[in-house]
Amino acid sequence: MFSSMYVHSSRFGFKRQGDCTTLYILNLALIDLLFCLVCSLQVSVEEFSVERGWDLGKTACLLVVFVRWALGWMDFLALALIAFSR
Which residues of 23-51 are buried (b: 16+ CB within 10 A; e: fewer)? Predict the structure, then answer.
């Protein structure tokens, strides 16, 4: 997703400086943002529910846990790619 934005960025007046490391860092920023959104959703549902538990059902609970783990691994792999490219 960010790679297509990076390729077309010259249309909008942005200078295309850098290399693939810039794409890795943008990808890492997006992953971190999504991780924060998913974690804040989980915490807000757990903290503001009536019984101090998960009110959205088992499927939503499993989905949130899966997305958190997947984003965690994506974050780890993005950091590894940045380290490897340098």
Answer: bbebbbeebeebbeebeeebeebeeeeee
Q: How far is CA 64 from the centre of its chain?
A: 13
At residue 16, φ and ψ (nearest 5 deg) are -95, 75
Tokens of 8: 């077309």
Closest by CA to 78, choosing from 24, 6, 30, 20, is 24
Whether 33 has a pLDDT exceeding 80, the answer reads yes
> Is pTM, for the whole model, over 0.70?
no
Cβ atoms < 10 Å from Cβ of 71: 20
